[in-house]
Amino acid sequence: MDVQGLISHRARSLDASGIRRAFERSARLFDPINLSIGQPDFEVPEAMREVVKSAIDEGQNGYTMTQGADAPIALLQAHLRHDVGWNIPSENTDVLLTAGTTGAITLAFMALLNEGDEAIIPDPYFVVYPALAELVGGKAVCVDTYPDFRMTAARVEPLITERTKLVMVNSPGNPSGVVLSEAELIELEELCRDRGVVLISDEIYDAFTYSDGLENGQFPTPARRTEEMLLIRGMGKTYGCTGWRLGYAAGPKVLIDEMAKLQQYTFVCAPSIVQASMSAIASVDLRPYIDAYEKKRDMVVQALSPYTNLTHPSGAFYAFVEVPPELGETASQFADRAMEDNVIVIPGHIFSQRDTHFRVSFAIDDERLAKGLEILQRHLKSRTGHPAS
Ligand SMILES: Cc1ncc(COP(=O)(O)O)c(C=O)c1O
Asked: Ligand 1 centre from 4 Cα, in Å?
C-alpha cells in the first residue's frame, strides 16, 4: 500500500523541516548550552505534584465533563472574577478547560474560521498560529510588528477585511518578550469591537511579567475592559509543567459552547489528574521564580544590547535579538555559527517571514546562561566569533 500517497494535503501542507533539521543538528552536540528551550527550568511546585499523585491514587483517572470537572471550573471562575472582574459564570460568559493552551487555540480557530476566512496574527508569531489557521482551511494574515514588536491597532486596522474573523494578540510575546500596555490593548479591543471581529488574547506568559511590564502592579490585559473577547491562558509555562497539557479559554458563552462541542469530538477533556492540580495553585508562591527570571532577563539585556538591537523584553523568558546588519548574514547563518560553538539559539525564520533576528531563551541556570551570552557576544562582534578579529 502506498501510504505516502494517502497522506492528506492538510498534513502535507505543514512544513516542519526547519524545526526538525535544527533539532537533529543540535542533538549531535555534546552538552550544548541550550538557549532554545521554551519552558521554565524549575521543578513543578511540590504541592501540585502531590495533588496529582493523590488524584491518581484516589481514582480520578476517568473522563471528566468536557468543560472540566466541577471543582477546577469553580476555581477558575472565581479566579477570573477576582483577577479581571468578570461576571462568570453567567448567561453570556463562561470558561472551558483545555488540553494545553494549544488545545484552546485549536478549538477557537476551528470554531471561528470557515474556508478562506482570515486570522490576523502578529509577525513574529508563536509557530502554531499560522499553521493552525491553514489547517482549518483559513488564512493567516501577518501584522509586521518589526522593529518594536508591538501589535498596535494602527498596524492591525489596514489588514481587516470582510473575511477577517479574529485578531490574535500575544502579550508577553513569544519570541520577543514584549509586553503591550493597557492603552494599546484597549485600542485593539475597541478596533475589534467596532469591526465585529473576535479579539483573542493569548496570555500564556502572564505570570512572567517583570516589574517594568506591570501597570499599577498588575499585568496589562484587555480582559479588564471587556468580557467580549476570548481570553486564553495556560498552566504549563507558569508552573513548569508544559507536559501536563492544561490551559483554558474564557469568553462569550456562545463561542465557549461551540469550542466545548468541538472538544467533545477531539480532545474530549483536559487531563483529569492535571485538572486536580489546580486545587494546589493557591498555595504556590511564584514570586521567587519570577524575581529570578527578571534577573536572568537583565543578564541578557546587559550582555547583548551593547552589540545589537534588542527590543526590551518585559515578560516571558525570551529576547529576540537582531543579527547586526554589518555581519551580512541571515539569522540561520548566525545560529549555525553559534552552534559550532556549542550554543543553541533559534533563528527568526521559524517565527517569522523574516530571518533577521534570533530567539534567546533564558530559562536556564545562571552559570550556563552567562557562558552562552559570552559566546553570543563574541559572535555578534565578528563573523569569526574570535575576539581578535
Ligand atoms: C505564545 C504561546 N502560546 C501558546 C503556547 C502553547 O502552550 P501549551 O504548551 O500550553 O500548549 C506557547 C508555547 O510555547 C506559546 O509560546
From this structure: 30
* Position in ligand 1 atom list of the atom nearest CA 102: 11
3-44+286-381 against 62-283: fold identical: no
Q: Cα(238) to centroid of ligand 1, in Å?
A: 11
Question: Which cell numbers in the block locate residue 348?
Answer: 527568526
pLDDT above 70 coverage of the chain, percent: 99
What's the grid cell of residue 36?
A: 532554545
Written out in words, the top-level CATH class of the domain with range 62-283 is: alpha beta
Domain-by-domain residue ranges, the chain?
A: 3-44+286-381, 62-283
The one-letter amino acid code at 255 reads L
Q: Is a pLDDT exceeding 70 seen at residue 389?
A: no
Assigned CATH for 3-44+286-381: 3.90.1150.10
With bands split at pLDDT 50, 70 and 90, how would you rate the model's confidence at 387?
Answer: low
| Crossing angle of helices 100-112 and 253-264, rounded to 10° | 110
Per residue in 232-271, pLDDT (tens digit) is 999 999 999 999 999 999 999 999 999 999 999 999 999 9
Residues with CB under 6 A from ligand 1: 38, 100-102, 126, 170, 174, 202, 204, 234, 236, 242, 247
